[in-house]
Design brief:
mainly alpha, Four Helix Bundle (Hemerythrin (Met), subunit A), binds fe (ii) ion
Length: about 130
C-alpha cells in the first residue's frame, strides 16, 4: 500500500532518502495494523512516523529557505496543516478510537502520494535550477 516509486523522485538524493523513509514508516504502521498488533505497538509505530515527519518537514523547510524558494510560506503552511492533522489522528488513536484505521491509512496515502508527488516537485524544479546555476 505504501511504496515509494521512482516517479516521486525530486532528483535531490537527500530528500528522496527522507521520502523513502517516510513511506517505509507508513508501511510498517500499515503492516502492524494488518497483523492486528496491539495498541502499544501501533502507537509506537505511529509515533515514529509522526516524529520523522517533523524532522523531514523541518529539513525541507531549511532547504527551501537556503535556496530562497519563493513559495516557501505556502509550502510550510501545507506542512503545518499536515502535521496538525496527523497529530490529531494520533490523539484520537491514543484516546481509543478504533475506527481510525481506514481514515488514517487513507490520509497517509493521500498525503504521501499527493504532497510528495506534486508540491514537493514544485520546489524541486526551483531548487535544481539554483543548484545547476
Ligand atoms: Fe513538502
Amino acid at each position: 500500500m505504501f511504496e515509494w516509486k521512482p516517479e516521486y523522485s525530486v532528483q535531490i538524493p537527500e530528500i528522496d532518502a527522507q521520502h523513502q523513509r517516510l513511506f517505509g514508516l507508513a508501511s510498517n504502521l500499515h503492516e502492524a495494523m494488518a497483523q492486528g498488533k496491539g495498541k502499544t505497538v501501533l502507537e509506537q509505530s505511529l509515533a515514529q512516523l509522526v516524529d520523522y515527519t517533523k524532522v523531514h518537514f523541518a529539513a525541507e523547510e531549511q532547504f527551501m529557505g537556503k535556496y530562497r524558494y519563493p513559495e516557501i510560506a505556502a509550502h510550510k503552511a501545507q506542512h503545518d496543516q499536515l502535521t496538525a492533522q496527523v497529530i490529531e489522528l494520533q490523539k484520537e488513536f491514543s484516546a481509543g478510537n478504533t475506527m481510525l484505521t481506514v481514515s488514517l491509512m487513507t490520509f497517509l496515502k493521500n498525503w504521501l502520494e499527493h504532497h510528495i508527488a506534486r508540491s514537493d516537485q514544485q520546489y524541486s524544479v526551483y531548487i535544481r535550477s539554483k543548484l545547476a546555476a
